[in-house]
Specification:
The structure is a single chain. The protein is mostly helical. The protein starts with 5 loop residues before the first helix and ends with a helix.
């Protein structure tokens, strides 16, 4: 995705090109393994919040902490 033009990403994801460009720049700071781990964590936190295992904002805080700790 590093070589994909932001306009192409924006079209495929229905995003504004500016947002796509900023997200692409942000993603460059992560390894593919880190992205997979954070995606799995986000899915687990989403499922946990939907099953009322914790408050939704607790899931957000956990995710932000994981991103910062990378």
């Amino acid at each position: 995705l590093a070589d994909t033009p932001p306009a192409t990403i924006a079209t495929k994801l229905s995003l504004h090109p500016f947002v796509a460009k900023k997200q692409q720049q942000l993603a460059m700071g992560f390894t593919p393994t880190q992205i997979r781990q954070l995606t799995a964590l986000a899915a687990d936190l989403d499922a946990g919040a939907k099953r009322s295992k914790f408050a939704p904002w607790d899931g957000v805080y956990r995710f932000v902490a994981a991103v910062i700790a990378r």
